[in-house]
Amino acid sequence: MDDIVITSWAPGSDPVDPVDQAVPAAVAGLLERAGLGLEADVEVWALARRDGRLVGCMGLAGDLVKDVVVDQGLRGHNLMAGLLTELRHQAVARGRTRLSCYTRPSLAAVFASLGFRALAQADGLAVLMEDDPRGVERYQADLAASRREGERIAAVVLNANPFSLGHQHLLRLAARDCDLVHVFVLGEDRSQFSPAERFALVRDGLAALPEHDRFVLHPGSRYIVSRLTFPQYFLKDQADIARAHAGIDLQLFRQRVAPVLGIRHRFVGSEPTSRITAHYNQEMRRWLQSPQADWPTIEVHQVERLEVGGRPVSATRVRQALAAGRFDQLAELVPATTWDYLVRRPPRAEPAPLGPPAPPRRQGGRSQPPDDHRQAKELSC
Amino acid sequence: MLISRPAVAGTLESGDATVRITPHDSLEVVVTSSVEAQYGDAVRRVVRQTLEGLGVARALVTVTDKGALDYALRARVEAAVMRAGDEPVDWDVLIGGER
Predict the structure, then answer these.
(1) Which one of A24, A41, A75, B75 is least enclosed by Cβ atoms within 10 Å?
(2) What ipTM is given for this predicted complex?
(3) Mean pLDDT of chain B
(4) Cα–Cα dist A182/A298, whole Å
(5) B14 and chain A: CB distance < 8 Å anywhere?
(6) Is the minimum CB–CB distance between B4 and chain A shorter than 8 Å?
(7) In CATH, what number is assigned to the domain containing residue A85?
(8) What is the rounded distance in angstroms from the CA atom of residue B18 to the CA atom of residue B83?
(9) Contact criterion met (CB < 8 Å) for B13 and A81
């Protein structure tokens, strides 16, 4: 790494010298040449320069490493190691002690050599890796503390933004059919209602039900992957992104979560409106019900949506009624516990973005730029 | 020594190691090493001995070793511990001839 200089740059920080002022455009250019989109939520970049020219970058968003590009002509210089070392310091300074990344399978070996461990791979599209070699086992040990025995044990994963009668309907059907229902509330702060609010509304809503002793509530974890935080930058089309997300999330669920709690059933609402969610439900059958030597199958139960006024109840519909101030409509869509909360809820600002505003995303598709545009072959993920 | 905040020391260059340390309710040492087959146990031993010498009883210590020699490994563990704790550095222990 003789003549290579590694630095970091936080978007939005004041450029101090002329070199800094050129950084945003250089990063965008480097990503563009590698056929990657700039992810808007990157908080800080590790940058590698040689003779003033940008030859590598690696972004941090939350605890995700993303937008990694390394000039392939400099691979022997172990640029990835230098970038990751710098990014780790930046992460620790922000209180984040473990990192994960989604990468192309072709780069999994490089990340493995830097201390990352593959957790799940989807269809040759993407691999989820994390740099905590015992992270899953530690999570499983925590999870095992809430294991309860039963004949039929089910799980429901929901965002509950906010908890509605639709969610309640789904959970009650699961509880009537099974001895125990583990309920996972997604933990990402990307929704109108904060993770703490969503969790509390589910908890209070379930406590009021006659089946309340059949539910075990869990906060989200990094091993239950929300589509909201699934990165997209290295996959070209929406279908691949949806497939990669579903594959990784559902394998983690089947292999790392379900066995710890003895879960053999998963309940999900039918999806009449959103194509993406309908696709996810379809993928669920494939990933959970197909026979696998090491992992028991999990039966998928798709439950018809609860309808009110001839239309399915959805969290979107609840938020629309809330935005319109129609508390009369809300009363038909949410349980009393949620309604009470909504009526006296202080207005909340939109969820804070993870970092300062970033340059606008590239418009249009993520098509490869023409060949003559590629100044160097890049290793990217 | 009490580990009160996360810290990191070292690099991923060949012959070095990255040591990460975070507060934890017990002492857990996790090592991945590019020379695991030959020296994995030796790396773990050096890391544990160094932590013991510094009186670290509760921490999660994650080491990514790229073939660091003992003294480099010790230095990285010590640096990470110093950064993670609030106590003043006891240089007598660090540079003393007890090793």
Answers:
(1) A75
(2) 0.87
(3) 91
(4) 14
(5) yes
(6) no
(7) 3.40.630.30
(8) 14
(9) yes
Same domain assignment for residues A331 and A197: yes
Does residue B97 fall inside a structural domain?
no
The pLDDT value given to residue A364: 39
Q: Nearest residue on chain B to A86, judged by CA atoms? A: B11
Burial of residue A153 (CB within 10 Å: 0-12, 13-18, 19+) is: buried
> A272 with A155, same domain?
yes
Q: Which residues of B touch A114 (CB under 8 A)?
A: 12, 64
Secondary structure of residue A214 in the 3-state scheme: helix
The secondary structure of A126-157 as a DSSP string is EEEEES-TTHHHHHHHHHHTT----SSEEEEE
Under an 8 A CB cutoff, do B18 and A134 touch?
A: no
User: Each residue of A48-82: pLDDT tens digit?
Assistant: 999 888 999 999 998 899 989 998 777 767 899 99
| Mutation for B interface: A97, A114, A131, A138, most B CBs within 10 A | A97
B62 CB neighbours in chain A (<8 A) are 115, 131-133
Q: Is residue A302 one of the residues assigned to a domain?
A: yes
Pairwise CB contact (< 8 Å): B12 & A85:
yes
Please judge whether B8 and A89 are an interchain contact, meaning their C-beta atoms are less than 8 angstroms apart: yes
Count of domains for chain A: 2
Q: Does A78 touch chain B (CB under 8 A)?
A: yes
Q: What is the pLDDT at residue A358? A: 41
Q: What is the CATH number for B73?
A: 3.30.230.10
Query: Does pLDDT of A282 surpass 50?
Result: yes
Partner-chain contact B30 A81, CB within 8 Å? no
Pairing of strands A265-269, A153-158: parallel
Proportion of chain A above pLDDT 70, given as a percent: 87
Domain of A90? 1-97
| Cα A188 to Cα A162, A227, A351, A376, B71, distances in angstroms | 14, 10, 10, 37, 42
CATH of the domain at A195: 3.40.50.620
- Hey, is the C-beta of B32 within 8 angstroms of any chain A C-beta? yes
